[in-house]
Write a structure and sequence with these properties.
Mean pLDDT: 92
Number of helices: 10
Function: Probable lipase.
Low-confidence stretches: 1-8
Shape: globular
Helix content: 40-55%
Protein name: Isoamyl acetate-hydrolyzing esterase 1 homolog
Organism: Ursus maritimus (Polar bear)
Number of strands: 5
Largest sheet: 5 strands, parallel
Radius of gyration: 21 Å
GO molecular function: hydrolase activity, acting on ester bonds
Family: Belongs to the 'GDSL' lipolytic enzyme family. IAH1 subfamily.
Strand content: 5-15%
């Protein structure tokens, strides 16, 4: 009984969190080779990487659910970094996909609103990263649409307008942004290899996203210590001296 009481009396170890908030490109990012999985691997024993991706969602719906994911008034619950990655569904053509479509001006305002909410919930601007949607390979995506019995419901030029709005919101808010739409098309390169079906990321696309996102995340988490000591450094005679401290090593 005394042993149980001693164990229960030890203090909980606060584990920092990185929150990935987005649509299917975020939801699928924990699959093998996904950019979220790569981020989690990079940050193991420093913080948890939480996948809050919602397939098919747009910023109109995201703005509604965000307070359910990060609440106000609990500083211990505040993530050390948050990515906001929407636009692939907002930019759907209104005539072909009215349910997911969000007008450009509303999309920009929704992003701004989410940034304002996060700041009010104790997540300051330096912890945030907006990610603009990737380009759309229309030929590949049209094949996917036809398999579903529908017409092409997105255009790369329109996605570019939403990506531009995302970049502008980040500039206006003074926060980091990753402009995938532009980066993947630099020097008029063929970006189709970055996409699995014309819309979602392929393994190469996941690798590309991670390689550009990591420098932005790294500077936000660089001060985080490795949680709990390296095994060779655990005191052999009395391991509790090493393992029941503040967890930093």
């Amino acid at each position: 009984m005394a042993l149980c009481e001693a164990a229960s009396g030890s203090s909980s170890l606060l584990w920092p969190r990185v929150l990935l908030f987005g649509d299917s490109i975020t939801q699928f990012s924990f699959q093998q080779g996904g950019w979220g999985a790569s981020l989690a691997d990079k940050l193991v024993r420093k913080c948890d990487v939480l996948n809050r991706g919602f397939s098919g969602y747009n910023t109109r719906w995201a703005k509604i659910i965000l307070p359910r994911l990060i609440s106000k008034g609990n500083s211990l619950d505040s993530p050390v970094a948050v990515t906001i990655f929407f636009g692939a569904n907002d930019s759907a053509l209104k005539d072909e996909n009215p349910k997911q479509h969000v007008p450009l001006a509303e999309y920009a305002e929704n992003l701004s609103s989410m940034v304002r909410y996060l700041r009010s919930a104790g997540v300051p601007g330096p912890r945030l990263v907006l990610i603009a949607p990737p380009p759309l390979c229309e030929a590949a995506w049209e094949r996917e649409c036809r398999l579903q019995g529908s017409k092409l419901n997105r255009l790369n030029s329109v996605v570019g307008e939403y990506a531009g709005a995302c970049v502008q919101v980040a500039r206006d808010c003074g926060i980091d942004v990753l402009d995938l739409w532009t980066l993947m098309q630099e020097d008029t390169q063929d970006f189709s290899a970055y996409l699995s079906d014309g819309l979602h990321l392929s393994p190469k696309g996941n690798e590309f996203l991670f390689s550009h996102l990591w420098p932005l995340i790294e500077k936000k988490v660089s001060s985080l210590p490795l949680l709990l000591p390296y095994w060779r450094d655990v005191a052999e005679a009395k391991p509790e001296l090493s393992l029941l401290g503040d967890g930093d090593h």
